[in-house]
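A favour, since you know our structure tokens better than I do. Could you add the entry underneath, on a fresh line?
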Amino acid sequence: MRLVFPPIRRSRNPLVRALSLVLGLAVVGVLLLFGVVVLGVLFAGGLVFLAVRQWKLSRGQVAGAAEAAPKDPEVLEGEFVVIRQGRPVHHH
């Protein structure tokens, strides 16, 4: 099955052709301007995020870190399951 579009009917009137060209360029310009504005907002937000993060790190506050005793670097933490021989293992 082929998808066939009807032929595009161009106007012969030069004024209509010029107007459609200007309208098309205006739409492309608005889309480009919108893209630049979005890019600028994302860039400014990233700069604010990095500035706040650096400010917190310089004050000694790490985001999400609880005040806890220093940990022993030789101890591994994590979740584990004891597997016994001869019994079926059930995973959650």
In short: DSSP finds one helix and no strands in the chain.
